[in-house]
Amino acid sequence: KAELAKLRELPATTTDGHQVEVCSNIGTIKDMDGAHRNGAEGVGLYRTEFLFMDRDSLPTEQEQFQAYKEVAQSMPDKPIIVRTMDIGGDKELPYMKFPKEMNPFLGWRGIRVSLSRPELFKQQLRAILRACADTPGCGIMFPMVSGYTEVVTAKHILQECREELERKNIPYARDLKVGIMIEVPSAAIMTDVLAREVDFFSIGTNDLTQYTIAVDRVNNRVANMFRPTHPAVIRIMDMTITAGERENIPTAICGEMAGDITLLPLLIGLGATSMSVGVHLVPIIRYAIRNLDYGQCRDMAQKALQAPNSRAIVDLSTALARKSYPALFE
Ligand code: PEP
Ligand code: MG
């Protein structure tokens, strides 16, 4: 821990000079202290739904503004990526009617809820735009996107919010970046088109795995099939990162997979530009990246993309991880 703490201010640069960003995932302002202490370079995923869940009525626009502002101002010189609420699936709100669904993870969830409740969505968008007014480099991202029309519609509503604030002379973040979560295979397959519409991608490996292999992420009976290293998941991630590179936009990884030291060489080798992990994992991931060789990661990732099964992919990545940072395996 003492060794890791010394790296706090150092960049996550591989031994051959390739720099990767290490950010943290947060749920509430309470996580920001740990993010600071562990030297996060920003927040890669702020899961705003917690603000909506821990209570018995909808937070007002002003309450949301206060909450987002507190987070943004607690790291004023670093990027904060605010994800609009990802309600539905296994997350319900006690004060909002969620009709019983046969397949909630395939139903009314994430951006689908926001787009069908535009007034509610706009409150959140205005609150985010206002909260980030004085903190350059912040971004907003939409969860559970499945295709082009959702992205264009969400951007259109965001633009309406900007215009409303402009008319009322209310300060807002003019440079707010707009990104999407890539966690539904249909969106991943369309990333060549979507890359022209947004400023960044962030791969949510938890849902991407669930939806690609059709394995419920919260069902213990199929938990042994839940493998982010399934070759199809890896190929979809490669497709996404490559589409981003062609349009010059970065691709972060913000699912649990990003915090797995055995799989890090694979993610770096595929070309992910940023890892967003739980606050306590930030120093470990930074240390690991600083001991990797990007060239070796790239070669290994190319082999992994040809592998027939998850086991072979895990073995390739783990071998390079063990060779590069043996101390983390002791
Ligand atoms: C994911 O799906 O990988 C993700 C980061 O989002 P969440 O876990 O909040 O669904
Ligand atoms: Mg998700």
Task: Summarize this structure as a short list of keywords or feature phrases.
15 helices; binds magnesium ion; globular; 330 residues; binds phosphoenolpyruvate; 12% strand; alpha/beta
Could you describe the 3D structure shown?
By secondary structure, the chain is of the alpha/beta class. 44% of the residues lie in helices and 12% in strands. It has an 8-stranded parallel β-barrel with strand order 2-3-4-5-6-7-8-9, surrounded by 4 helices. Helix 4 packs parallel to helix 6. The mean pLDDT is 97. Bound molecules: phosphoenolpyruvate and magnesium ion. The site of phosphoenolpyruvate (PEP) has 10 residues, from strand 3 and helix 10.
Summary of the model, kept short:
By secondary structure, the protein is α/β, with parallel strands linked by helices.
Radius of gyration: 19 Å
Which hetero compounds are present in the coordinates? phosphoenolpyruvate, magnesium ion
Judging from the principal axes of the Cα atoms, what is the shape?
globular
Mean pLDDT: 97
Q: Which strand order spans the largest sheet, edge to edge or round the barrel? A: 2-3-4-5-6-7-8-9
Structural class: alpha/beta
Task: Tell me the quaternary state.
Answer: single chain
Share of β-strand residues: 5-15%
Order of helices and strands: HEEHEHHEHHEHEHHEHHEHEHHH
Largest sheet: 8 strands, parallel, barrel
Number of strands: 9
Low-confidence stretches: none
List the total number of helices: 15
Q: SSE layout and pairings?
A:
Elements: H1 2-6, E1 12-13, E2 19-26, H2 32-37, E3 43-47, H3 49-53, H4 61-74, E4 80-83, H5 111-116, H6 118-131, E5 139-142, H7 148-167, E6 177-182, H8 185-189, H9 191-194, E7 200-203, H10 205-213, H11 231-246, E8 251-253, H12 264-270, E9 274-278, H13 282-290, H14 294-304, H15 310-324
Parallel strand pairs: 2-3, 2-9, 3-4, 4-5, 5-6, 6-7, 7-8, 8-9
Antiparallel strand pairs: 1-2
